[in-house]
């Protein structure tokens, strides 16, 4: 018995120029779905150059402030403060970019974009995964610009080039992991203004860490929190790779120790916030 392939004939179409449209026999795969959503979001970024400009200028501006305003007041030990500062600033700039990610997701929710996608026979995690990939691409651009500005203001690599490239790759991995947190915030917030306000709640992680000051300079009750939160682990890993010796950053363990811990934290963040984001999307 033959199987008929369903077709859709376009009324008024010229048979010589437009063939019958064949209906899809199966839904799009997860990779295809994620890729198409990511491509749509990247095109949205390209058509809104203000997003790229603001993301670029914001990172450079705060880096210059920390370099020239606070640099003389902080003791960075045996390394120049600019070499102590730039690696960690590249790490923490992930959080600055995350505010834009949460606002973008909230805007898509507010304008009904995700509602339209909900009617399609595609994977729900893949839809959010595409958004996370696009925001990671934008974040990577911001990391490149921030790193370039760091070199312009005097930053130099103490380790090998391979270690420096590994440090940058870790920053991209961190960015993808934290993006899921901001996607979840955007879905919970519901509108862009609320998403930006809620994203600010994440910023204490930046200061309650080893990012800008040594942990042992903090009050005793706060030190355990600062030592064991993810941003400290990631900061120590990137700083160790760039400096080439953890001892230069006042750290006790080896480079491999901090890199392994950071690679445990990154999928851990995805494992927590990706399911939460998908569950929230299904209830929205």
Note down, in words, how this protein is organized.
- This protein has helices at 30-47, 49-68, 81-110, 113-118, 124-152, 161-189, 192-199, 204-207, 223-227, 230-243, 255-283; strands spanning 7-8, 21-22.
- By secondary structure, it is mainly alpha-helical.
- The protein has a two-stranded antiparallel sheet.
- Helix 3 (81-110) packs antiparallel against helix 5, helix 3 runs antiparallel to helix 7 (192-199) and helix 5 (124-152) crosses helix 11 (255-283).
Shape: elongated
Biggest sheet strand order reads 1-2
The SSE order reads EEHHHHHHHHHHH
End-to-end span in angstroms? 45 Å
pLDDT under 50 segments (min length 5)?
A: 1-8
Roughly what percent helix?
55-70%
Strand % is under 5%
Rounded to an integer in angstroms, the radius of gyration calculated over CA atoms is: 23 Å
Number of strands: 2
For the sheet with most strands, the description reads:
2 strands, antiparallel
Structural class: mainly alpha
- Helical segment count: 11
Give the overall average pLDDT. 82
